[in-house]
Amino acid sequence: MLSTQEVSTQDAEGQQAVVADAPFSSLSTRMHQMFPTLTCEEIGRLRRFGEIGHWKAGELMFETGHTGPGMFVVLEGRVKIYQRDGIGREVLIGEHGAGHFLAEVGQLSERPALVNGMALTAVEALLIPPEKLRALIVAEAELGERIMRALILRRVSLIEKGAGGPILVGNSSDAQLVMLQGFLSRNGHPHSVIDERDEDALRLIEQFAAQREDMPLVICPDGRVLRHPSMPELATCLGLLPDLDDSYVYDVAIVGAGPAGLASAVYAASEGLSVIVLDSRAPGGQAGASSRIENYLGFPTGISGQALAGRAFVQAQKFGARVAIPVHVKALHCAASPYRLELKCGGHITARTIVIASGAVYRRPALEGLDRFDGRGVYYWASPVEAKLCKRQEIVLVGGGNSAGQAIVYLATHAAKVHVLIRRSGFEATMSRYLIDRIRSLPNVFVHPNSEIGRLEADESGLASVGLKQPLPDGVDHFDTRHLFLFTGADPNTDWLRTCGVRLDAKGFVLTGIGAGGTAAACDLATTVEGVYAIGDARAGSTKRVAAAVGEGAAVVAQIHQLLAVSAAEAVALGA
Prior knowledge:
This is Cyclic nucleotide-regulated FAD-dependent pyridine nucleotide-disulfide oxidoreductase. Residues 34-154 form the Cyclic nucleotide-binding domain. By secondary structure, the chain is α/β, with parallel strands linked by helices. The chain contains 14 helices and 29 strands. The chain folds into 4 domains: 4-161, Jelly Rolls, CATH 2.60.120.10; 167-238, 3-Layer(aba) Sandwich (Glutaredoxin); 249-362 and 492-575, FAD/NAD(P)-binding domain (3-Layer(bba) Sandwich), CATH 3.50.50; 370-488, FAD/NAD(P)-binding domain. The longest helix is centred in the last third of the chain and has 30 residues, at 546-575.
């Protein structure tokens, strides 16, 4: 059985690093940072950002699942903070009085509240709405830093408790459940999981008359029940998707929330441009699935991809960038300016400039029947969710790049044995030296050079065996395993550009810096369509490193500013 605490704590692992200022930092030693008491002088500095309100004893100030009104600064009275989930269970989080502020990081972007706040006595409080809260954090540097740290730490604490999130009921090995769990985990949203064999789960299944085809069952914080939901359905129920106004024209629309896309969002929004970021899954892109990045500048002890993405995601929200996840972009229409992004869910986004940061999609080997094993034994990333599934088991991993190396090191701490298949004779040409040395030191990792998968075999439970094209030197021609991790490269995620005049190379990567003479300028991130730019892994000639992607995300904003300045000047001249 998967206990809710066990799962929630695992999901918090990546989020812990989002806020840790030093190695070995833990929430238990940071309560003073999570719940600081403001002085009268500090409250005085906050008054210009909000308005005074009054609440009677027993009145709800904010409620789980409903859009939070912002941050409350308690001036008089006491407030009870508690969790009430979708099946009526109630857990006390704490009580707060004068000098305390009530909010968590979701209030930066008008997300639904994750807990209830009820006035225990008559309460007078300063209410600071989200847009003013963002302005406060920027304008009041020292005080804003303390508030921001507290907001993030509170989210981490809620993730550990599973507080305010949905309840997922199902079989731990079910592909849909694994997918939903991974989506919530990578988006830093609290949740709990109950195995369908547990007594509590059986009661819920009976209560909601759920059939086999309804599983997994999801009970949202407001009590709504979803039967076998998709990611967008779950996101909508949780209020994660912002209202997308078709009539609003953004300065910049960024497709992709990987390191490149998030960097461009941070720099553009911090310089006053209106920004929206669209992604189909979670912040971080492929880098977000990396268990530990150890060669990124400024993090000598390393940082997980999810933690790095989490920091950037919060930073973008701090400056006012809107982020819509999960949203799939169907097509870019650029026959006329402003440009239009058509969404698969219906509707569209309009913007003066477009940044292509859609990265790459995992390459799928040409194996018969591969699709039926997705989430049922075959995985394309290694998060705590997948690591728990293969704990103390024998697994197979295919790939020889840095992403594969990071996954090998991480999974080796969970699995009994890790068999690594690579087509080359070694890792030297494709993997960083520090990862090669680390892998060589792991006693339960067995690297098999010059080997390839030939077939997959199944039984009634899913994947059962991985067969090889040619036997190994010792005669082994297959591995009995229920877990196969594929890190076999990626292809550019650029199919949605076919309706526009953006020029691609033969492999589908976006060409940039192509001048009138047909020559390419390395520092120019503009595509063949004016006002459309490409950065990160989707761009032809990119370095395929997180640091390079972040650099391109910053550089593209300068080029966007130049274009918008010229457009504004031309508009003024025409008006004159």
